[in-house]
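#struct-help
A.M.: can someone run this one for me? Single chain, 551 residues.
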Amino acid sequence: MLRSLTIRDFVIVDRLELEFSGGFGVLTGETGAGKSILLDALGLVLGGRGEAGMVRSGRDRADVAAEFDLAADGALAAWLAEQDLPADEGAVILRRTIDAGGRSRAWINGSAVTLAQLRTAGEWLADIHGQHAHHALLRADAQRSLVDVQAGAVPLATEVAGLHREWQRLLRLEREAAADSASSARERELLSWQLQELDQLGFEPDAWQELNAEHSRLAHAASLIEGADETLAALGEGDIAVCTILRHLDARVAALADYDPGLADVRELLAAAAIQADEALYALRRYRDRLDMDPQRLAEVEQRIATVMDAARKHRVAPEALPELTRQWRERLQTLEATADPARLAAAAATARQAFDAAAGRLSAARAPAARRLSDEITAAMQTLAMAGGRFEVALEPSEPAATGLEIVEFRVSANPGQPLRSLAKVASGGELSRIGLAIQVMASRDTAVPTLVFDEVDVGIGGRVAEIVGKLLARLGRDRQVLCVTHLPQVAACADWQWRIAKREQGGETVSEVAPLDDAARVEEIARMLGGVSITSTTRDHAAEMLGRR
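D.P.: on it. Structure tokens below:
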């Protein structure tokens, strides 16, 4: 569960340090007080989208950190170990910063991580349902994805999509082979001849640099020999050789250092210089022994360079680009050869189709029971959400084979008794969509292993008895995990185990948001405010106390 959230300079938040409890908690306050801002901050630290506008005006950066419980034997702990990230005993700390330029940085337990790594960790820790999440349910892809998640078939759906792509690729190659066989044959012939020519050249990727280096050495062999001999003479021949002089000076200063220790540093420098001079002498002798005038080899290298240059000019590339050109031509030739036999391609496409059909069939078999289960559960939930007699159905309509499988997934609803089932996108009103969407989100969250669930004004569009039912629904979820909810409804707030009030105030000419935990008496006042608005009477307070007493 979420233990704490620290926010600095985020939108209208100056600094907040929040400690969270388990169970079902609500965040309440006037519109615009900053309730959703807190959840935006949590979403940011979980790997959500960040932008410069999140930084409080006049500040350099926004900083958000969240601490969660960490199960030692859980999947997240195993993932942290795989990523070589520290795993503090019993806790994991996520941190995210956004500077005024929009640049983002992230950490897990103090170690810098990528945004993708932060997002992956966040997926194990919390799930945020936004106030407009129910609108996504109108999209076919969202409906299909929900069914696949409930069916535990997301990896299988990914496999089906990949098999479909491979099948379609082979079909495309088959069509291309049949349509342009003559042109392909001419291109294959040309490429084969060109590759044969370059293969005979035998030019390797690093050969051009090596060839030029050898040419430079052979062309300047006389100068290299003369310079090496001159340097050898200066270093090691006669009484005035550098090495001899340095050894003599080293011995002389060493003797003087016996009288004055202040010469010790000078003696060390001279000794080092003498050693380095000797090493240079030995290395230069070995180099000189390998030097030789070789006019024949120089001619061979020059001829090799000329041959490579001719090939490069012919194909209009730089000499060093010839190996890459060879690779590209070879890949193109392999592609053309693969498409040169329509019969073989047809057989490969048929095999790919069989593999797709088998995987898609398994996907259909997994979706069917999940669709029935969702249909029954959401229909049952509708009866308690002021939609008595309503029905919900997850329809699986057969379709042409596609990357998504062998069926179209469509959510259908009948909001009133006697009405036929029709597409959710066409018949649901705003309030009905909100209630159905909330039921779906709660059902989906019930089966997830994520320990913290966050609902941001998902109760919009409902009220009265339905709001109370929603509150009790969220409270039941809170028995097994931590549930946080931003709400304007007193019926929902009254069902919570704990409650915070978010308010705005002026500070130094700036607007800041602050959070106050509420005790029992303060909760009565806050729920009375939510019930009565500006004028709060004793009757309103009594009603608020009664609502809290019915929890």
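A.M.: thanks! The longest strand covers residues 391-402.
D.P.: also worth noting: The longest helix spans residues 342-384.
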